[in-house]
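Schema walkthrough. Field components (list of strings):
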Amino acid sequence: EVQLVESGGGLVKPGGSLRVSCVASGFTFSYYNMNWVRQAPGKGLEWVSSISGSSNYIYYADSVKGRFTISRDNAQNSLYLQMNSLRGEDSAVYYCARDGDSKVIPEGTFDMWGQGTMVTVSS
Amino acid sequence: DIQMTQSPSSLSASVGDRVSITCRASQTISRYLNWYQQKPGKAPKLLIYAASSLQSGVPSRFSGSGSGTDFTLTISSLQPEDFATYYCQQSFSAPRTFGHGTKVEIK
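Field assembly_structure (string):
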């Protein structure tokens, strides 16, 4: 089955750190760019970060630049987001999302999503 | 960054109604516009990519149109399972930005 499964969310204090993970199955993980997209409670969607298949190209939203680090392990079909210096406004469901393959679905189009993992930043 | 403005922010409609949602980009994005559907407690689902291409498995009552800065998602005959929030998103340039969403509710 083609799927993405996130884990690692939880409650963390302001200023703390957390790493969330996403495991992919059912497709050639290394072929695809991958993304993290978040959604604060009751709010809309916000793209957070993306990484190319070979990890050569990495991008971040201004709101997390310098605090979050995206990485991947293609041998383990896994995507990670290391979050440091967490703030209350980082509280959200974090989704991993697969990028389009650029042959049929353009890059920057999120054609597959995980179920999300909740991160709560609170004292 | 490219700003995406959706309207309306919410609407009430009945089963069988034709529904249209619009999305406007703050600068031209050619046809690099996608539409997603999200139901409560669930992940978003890609409906339409490249402004008008239907994602595999999505019912044909969904359609998309537009280019440049103005785009429309149309549901030709609203079904009970279509009550959800819909988001547009531009894939023209980084950072990828979303509209604020349109909630489609039952009248």
